[in-house]
Amino acid sequence: MCSGVVRGRGSQSSSTYLNRKVKKTALKMYLYLMLLVFICDGFRVLGPPGPLIVQLGDSVMLPCFVETPLSLEDLEVEWKRIDSETLVHLWQDGESQPESQNQLYHERANFFPEEIAQGNFSLLLTDVTSKDAGGYKCTVYTKLDSGETLIEIKEMGG
């Protein structure tokens, strides 16, 4: 007849040994899954809930941020027009790259370098013209992931 408890060498029952083994395996699987979720989930890039209404000649802040600050290592932030893929502003290698941006935005599209470490990648666009109306895309790249948000500028009264 079987008693249900098998004793091996030592005083520990096989069911106790099995329980410990299962718990260790479950813990390893849990930690692996949490790491996988962290890597796959990455980060979310956030922007305004609706279009930004601006008067010609004024300045407008185009919000772009992440909820949790990212590592600055290999961080790249790219602002582009949606309709034409025109490069409005580029943050790369730890600094703005004004030589890369389209001439229409030279000295009008400004970043806030001191805000980057807090996860704020907003762009200040000054002296807004009718050509500035339309869609913009803020894309944030890290070594492992990327995310983007879309922003629309509408001309007041337009």
UniProtKB/TrEMBL annotation:
Q: Which GO terms describe its biological process?
A: cell surface receptor signaling pathway; cellular response to lipopolysaccharide; immune response; negative regulation of T cell proliferation; positive regulation of T cell proliferation; T cell costimulation
Q: Taxonomically, which superkingdom?
A: Eukaryota
Q: Look up and give the organism this protein is from.
A: Hemibagrus wyckioides
The entry's localization annotation reads:
Cell membrane
Q: Which SUPFAM superfamilies match?
A: Immunoglobulin
Instruction: Domain (Ig-like): give its ranges.
Output: 57-140
Q: What Gene Ontology cellular component terms go with this record?
A: external side of plasma membrane
Transmembrane ranges, per UniProt, are: 29-47
Known InterPro entries for this protein? Ig-like_dom (IPR007110), Ig-like_dom_sf (IPR036179), Ig-like_fold (IPR013783), Ig_sub (IPR003599), Ig_V-set (IPR013106), T-cell_Activation_Regulation (IPR051713)
Q: How does it sit in the membrane?
A: Single-pass type I membrane protein
Q: What is this protein called?
A: Ig-like domain-containing protein
Q: Which UniProt keywords are given for this protein, alphabetically ordered?
A: Cell membrane, Disulfide bond, Glycoprotein, Immunoglobulin domain, Membrane, Receptor, Signal, Transmembrane, Transmembrane helix
The record ties this protein, via SMART domains, to: IG
